[in-house]
Design brief:
There is one protein chain. Strand 7 (68-73) and strand 8 form a beta hairpin. The strands form two sheets. Strands 2, 4, 5, 6, 9, 10 and 11 form a seven-stranded mixed beta sheet that branches. With 118 residues, this protein is an all-beta fold. It is globular, with a radius of gyration of 13 Å. Helix content is 0%, strand content 53%. The chain contains no helices and eleven strands.
């Protein structure tokens, strides 16, 4: 059974840091590109970061470039999103997403809340 389970969210003050984790099971991580998306209240879901299979090249939304870093560990079956210099506008539910390299399969986690507030 495929599962993506996010953890590490919570409340942080502006300028702070958080690292989100996504535990992946039930599929071969190295054949999927992994993504983090987020959705703020009243807004559409936004692709935040993407990493190619087996921890290759990463790309980021302009809004988080230089502050967020995505990484993966195929041995542990996990994907991470390190978030630094957090801003109130980073407040959202963050979702882990796995997309097969051939594009015909996609899995989602249940989402985790990140709140940036003083």
């Amino acid at each position: 059974q495929v599962q993506l389970v996010e953890s590490g969210g919570g409340l942080v003050t502006p300028g702070g840091s958080l690292t989100l984790s996504c535990a992946a099971s039930g599929f071969t991580l190295s054949t999927y590109r992994m993504r983090w998306h987020r959705q703020a209240p009243g807004k559409e879901r936004e692709l935040v970061a993407d990493i190619t299979s087996a921890g290759g090249a990463a790309s980021y939304a302009d809004s988080v470039k230089g502050r967020f870093s995505i990484s993966s560990d195929t041995v542990k079956g996990a994907v991470y999103l390190q978030m630094t210099s957090l801003k109130p506008e980073d407040t959202a539910v963050y979702y882990c997403n796995a997309v097969h390299n051939l594009g015909f399969l996609s899995y989602w986690g249940q989402g985790i809340q990140v709140t940036v507030s003083s």
